[in-house]
Amino acid sequence: MSTFAKKINPFLMKLFYTLTFSLLACLPAFQTLSAQNISQLEAKAARIHKAAFTVDSHTDAPMNFSNKKFNVALDNSKILPYSCVDFPRMRQGGLDAVFFAVFTSQGPRTAEGNAKAKAKAELLFDSIYAAVQRYSAISGIATTPMEAYKLAKEKKSVVFIGIENGYPIGNDVSNVKHFYDRGARYITLCHTKNNDICTSSTDTANKTGLTVFGTQVVKEMNRLGMMIDISHVSDQSFYDVIKLSKAPIIASHSCSRELCDNPRNMTDDMLRALSANGGVVQMCILSDYVKTPLPDPKRDSARLAVREKYNNFLGLNDEQSEIAYAEWHSIDTQFPRKLATVSDVVNHIDHLVKIAGINHVGIGTDFDGGGGVIDCKDVSQMGNITLELVKRGYTEKDIKKIWGGNLMRVMRDVSAFAEN
Questions:
Q1: Quick one: which of 358, 364, 371 has its CA closest to 399?
Q2: Cβ(99)–Cβ(162) under 8 Å?
Q3: pLDDT tens across 166-214, in order?
Q4: What is each CA distance from 61 to 12, 45, 56, 72, 232, in whole angstroms?
């Protein structure tokens, strides 16, 4: 055989095998094999999801409680289509525990404004307790991880309570203990505007950071064993808090600013600081924080008009709230958003894990507060996140940490600090 033949034959053989396998891949047998692989991944993800103690650290479901059509014990997907969280859909989506947010919009920082905010918070606490007590056969309120595990073992949906926006505290630090005694286990220090505790990431005057009163609040939360939530706070507020807090802190619903340049998201430097503090960042699935939205002036104008019409949803009674929120959600029908995907969400999780570490990442959807992506629009679809994690090679141990293990560890650490 010639030297040329010796060189060409291996090449021809390689080409032959390449073409052969390319053709075979198009045949039904090979397609079936691929489908079998997908089916195996789905089965694996379902098994891991069922085995994990799953926690969503931030939802605004209580905002629906004033709507007469809403019933937390029913599947509201057709009754109130824009709602995302109820007990039947939690069970369907394999979600064991959820934080219900006691949310108040930021209003005037006056004695009257503070009093109204506190009264609103009290009503929301009352509504949460009333709903859970009414359906105590299928749900229960927890204030510790051990209480939560016990309820989950009893096949009950677990409800934790968090306060979104420290506005109801006003400028009276004793209110921190008052709300702790009512069952709140974290306070998101501010919302979209500055308050008496700290400056917000989305307020135009957001450079000051933690106030003198805010320092008292952080110390009191440490003393009580209450988690400090830095989602929504300005960068300066974040660094002030993390320097001051003796216990781990959380971001109950935040994403990576590296992947989506939004001031609500966390920079890599912030993630490293949070990791060093022993805290946890809970991945938010509000689409605008996951993927930078395309400009939509008509939608933005419509949303602004509704906010102005209803005084930014402040001071509304139950009937007015029902009408206002119906108008707000109708904007999604008039001007549909192009939502991010679960794949986009897990891109963020990949980055958060890379920067902060696997022990410092969790999930906080912001459902019923704007959260939801195209293939995870409510709690019934939570398993899709687990499936994507499995596809990307996350182990069962890692997934259990992300789905609740890390947050429960922080709750225990914060409580242990208080006890010492």
A1: 358
A2: yes
A3: 999 999 999 999 999 999 999 999 999 999 999 999 998 877 999 999 9
A4: 64, 27, 12, 9, 19
Q: Which amino acid is at 295?
A: P
CATH of the domain at 128: 3.20.20.140
DSSP strands (E only) in 2-153:
55-59, 97-103, 139-141
Q: Which residues pair with 186 in a beta bridge?
A: 227
Q: Note whether 325 and 413 are same-domain residues.
A: no
User: CB-based contacts of 151: which residues, under 8 Å, 6+ apart?
Assistant: 139, 140, 142, 157, 158
Query: What is the pLDDT at residue 333?
Result: 76
Which residues make beta-bridge pairs with 376? 373
**What pTM value is reported for the model?**
0.87
CA distance 211 to 166: 13
Count how many domains the chain has.
Answer: 2
DSSP state of 293: P
Distance (Å, whole) CA 289 – CA 344: 11
Based on the fold, state whether residues 184 and 204 are members of the same structural domain: yes
Q: Are 222 and 417 in contact (CB under 8 A)?
A: yes
Rounded Cα distance between 303 and 296, Å, is 11
Contact 375, 416 (CB under 8 A): no
Rounded CA separation 189/39 (Å): 44
Instruction: Give 112's contacts (C-beta < 8 A, 6+ positions apart).
Output: none
Residue 28 lies in a domain: no
Q: How far apart are CA 201 and CA 187, in angstroms?
A: 16
- In a domain, residue 110? The reply is yes
HSE (CB half, 13 Å, CA atoms) of 338?
Answer: 6
| pLDDT tens, position by position, 299-347 | 778 878 877 888 877 777 777 777 877 786 777 778 677 899 999 999 9
pLDDT at 311: 80
Domain span including residue 400: 33-293+338-419
The verdict on 237 and 314 lying in the same domain is: no
pLDDT digits (tens, 9 = 90+) for 73-125: 999 999 999 999 999 999 999 999 999 999 999 999 999 999 999 999 999 99
User: 43 with 118, same domain?
Assistant: yes
Strand bridging mode 97-103 / 139-141: unpaired
pLDDT on residue 385: 98
**Alpha-carbon span 326 to 258, nearest angstrom:** 34
Which residues partner with 240 through β-bridges?
A: none
